[in-house]
Structures are given as structure tokens and as C-alpha cells.
Write a structure and sequence with these properties.
Glutaredoxin, single chain, alpha/beta
Length: 202
């Protein structure tokens, strides 16, 4: 890992004890309603009866670039949505931050990357992110058809920004979805998230 990325990773994994307390696997996922990049109101309750993946994202984060630049995230999205899994990408970057992109620009960026999420949500005030105690980009969550949180953590076990590590990583999201769709419990319901810290308003 380069010296530049070490402080990013360190800040992003700060207060993990608090995070573990805030997220309760096996209980109802926090409800939310927020507009997507097209201005449409999206509610978690709209997807009751389906598996839902929540992906916190920021296209200026090198850890996010790792997964999109390698086509890893797009591959997961396409595979999941083809199996009727709902995939919601969420930006909680605050307006005014250097990383912030307005809805139109953010949507264009992910379109240029070939993203295949169900919707791109604009959580500008950070209420959704804080409800889930989301700390990093990426930070991943899975909600089952009953609305229960069944996974929270990192996308995989290779905590680096190197795209080459994708090939040898254990992908927790892919494995968890495979288990859920086969009617099995998630074998690894939590893991340590890694990436850049989310740029909340406060």
C-alpha cells in the first residue's frame, strides 16, 4: 500500500467499535426515502420481497476506482440485478466538498463506467448513511426480502486500492448473495469495511 493511501484507510476504519454497535445484523434495516439522480423518490419499502444491496460510493475515492476500474463492481451489479436483486448505489458526499458531484454529473460518471445499479441515490444530507453508520466508500450492506439486515461490511477481504487484488480476493458480497439466493444463511454476516471516509456534511 502506498504511503498516500495509508492515512485514508486508517481514517476510514476509525471507530469500528462504534460501527459494530450501530449496525445490528438480524434486525430490521433502517427505513429510508431519498431521491435518485433523476429526481425520483426511492423508498427502501418499495423493494419489500426482494434482496437489496446498498453500496456507498464516491467516484473520486481510489478504493472505489479500484472496483470500477477493474469492472468488479459492474460485474457484481449485472449478476445481481439479472437475478432480480435490487442494487442501490448511494452517494452521501456533502455538497460543497471537493468530491461532490451534482446528480447529473454523478450519473454521467457512473454511466461512463458502465454501472448497472438499479438506482443511484443522492443522500446529500447524509441521513441515510448515518442511519446505517456507513463509514467508507465502498461500504456494503445486504437486506433480505423481509427487510432484515443480513450483511454489513467490506466488499471483499483485500483491503487495498490495487485492482490486481480483485482477482484473489474473497468477495463477501458475491458469496453472501449466492448463499441467500440458494436459501442458505450468510456465512460471514459482518466484515471490516475499507476505503475512503464518507464526506458527510457534519
Amino acid at each position: 500500500m502506498t504511503p498516500l493511501l495509508k492515512p485514508l484507510l486508517a481514517s476510514a476504519t476509525l471507530a469500528l467499535a462504534t460501527l459494530a454497535q450501530a449496525i445490528t445484523i438480524g434486525q430490521a434495516a433502517p427505513a429510508f426515502e431519498v431521491k435518485d439522480a433523476n429526481g425520483k423518490l426511492v423508498k427502501l419499502s418499495d423493494f419489500k420481497g426482494k434482496h437489496v444491496v446498498l453500496e456507498w460510493t464516491n467516484p473520486n475515492c481510489p478504493f472505489v476506482v479500484k472496483h470500477y476500474g477493474s469492472q468488479n463492481m459492474q460485474g457484481l451489479q449485472k449478476d445481481a440485478t439479472a437475478k432480480e436483486v435490487v442494487w442501490l448505489s448511494i452517494s452521501s458526499t456533502a455538497p460543497g466538498h471537493a468530491d461532490y458531484l451534482a446528480a447529473k454529473d454523478l450519473a454521467a460518471k457512473y454511466l461512463s463506467w458502465g454501472a448497472s445499479s438499479t438506482a443511484l441515490l443522492m443522500d446529500d444530507d447524509g441521513r441515510v448513511g448515518k442511519a446505517y453508520a456507513a463509514r467508507t466508500t465502498p461500504h456494503m450492506f445486504i437486506v433480505d426480502p423481509k427487510g432484515v439486515l443480513v450483511y454489513a461490511g467490506g466488499i471483499d477481504d483485500k483491503r487495498s486500492a490495487n485492482p490486481a487484488d480483485v482477482a484473489t480476493a474473497k468477495n463477501f458480497v458475491k458469496t453472501s448473495l449466492g448463499e441467500l439466493l440458494a436459501g442458505k444463511p450468510v456465512s460471514t454476516p459482518t466484515s471490516v469495511p475499507y476505503g475512503c471516509s464518507i464526506k458527510y456534511a457534519s
